[in-house]
Input
Amino acid sequence: MNEITPELLSEFKDRMKLGDDEDNNLTRILKASNDDLQRICGDYDINTHEVFKELVFERSRYVYNDALEYFHTNFLTQLNNLNIAKALESSDVDETV
Output
């Protein structure tokens, strides 16, 4: 399971230009975004997959700004691309067995 590390939290706070007073809330938002996108797109490692991390950060930004209802529509192409890539990856594994 991917953990929201202090480094990821710091990177997100820098991007959003936020201070240290919201660490618990931001960690909760990042974890919920990571979990939701893992459910939708498949098992990606937020620490090594830049596109997945970008989507987690974007979803978290939408949550923070109370606009989550717009995220899935605005990022549908990226979500579908990750989902398809994971399906093709699974298909390649099945063919080699």
In short: The chain is about 75% helix and 0% strand. The longest helix spans residues 76-96.
